């Protein structure tokens, strides 16, 4: 009988190959060099992922993060990107409600007024996605309690005037920079 107990114990402690589910997080932004809102949201996203990853691995989830610099109007339209920064989990915006305010750091990129996302979490407004809202969205997705949806974001997507102006102005500045030459014989 002792031999039978040993075999049972060995069976219980054998490594098992578990199938892991994937949690895909898309972090989309217009700038990570100047925009304080995009940089702060990325930092909070990294903190949230670092805290929740060990638990998610334990319950059978792997996290894949896609970081996407949205650099053109065409790309924004193809991604249905309407607010910067945006975080989507498995294709769904973690805060589909649209709210924006003037972003001083993005104004310096283009020289025009630019609005960026305002996050609303537990009744307060934040210019960077709070770590808590990100963790809540991840856990809600894993445990099937996500209330976010992408309704109204279908085939009839129209880029906001704010982002259209941002990309137009960036393109004008790029063209202007490309046409500037140094005083020497070579262009810069």
Automatic annotation (TrEMBL):
One Pfam match: DUF2703
Name of the protein in its database record: DUF2703 domain-containing protein
Organism: Salinibacillus aidingensis
Organismal lineage: Bacteria, Bacillati, Bacillota, Bacilli, Bacillales
InterPro entries: DUF2703
Superkingdom in the source lineage: Bacteria
């Amino acid at each position: 009988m002792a031999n039978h107990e040993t075999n049972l114990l060995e069976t219980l402690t054998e490594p098992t190959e578990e199938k892991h589910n994937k949690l895909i997080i898309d972090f989309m932004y217009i700038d990570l060099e100047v925009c304080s809102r995009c940089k702060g949201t990325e930092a909070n996203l990294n903190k949230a992922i670092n805290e929740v990853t060990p638990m998610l691995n334990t319950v059978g989830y792997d996290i894949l993060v896609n970081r996407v610099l949205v650099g053109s109007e065409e790309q924004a339209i193809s991604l249905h990107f309407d607010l910067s920064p945006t975080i989507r989990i498995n294709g769904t915006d973690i805060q589909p409600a649209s709210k924006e305010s003037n972003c001083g750091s993005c104004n310096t990129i283009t020289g025009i007024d630019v609005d960026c996302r305002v996050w609303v979490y537990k009744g307060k407004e934040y210019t960077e996605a709070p770590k808590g809202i990100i963790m809540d969205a991840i856990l809600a997705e894993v445990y099937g309690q996500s209330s976010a949806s992408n309704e109204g974001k279908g085939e009839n997507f129209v880029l906001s005037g704010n982002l259209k102006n941002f990309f137009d102005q960036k393109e004008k500045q790029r063209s202007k920079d490309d046409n500037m030459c140094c005083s020497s014989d070579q262009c810069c």
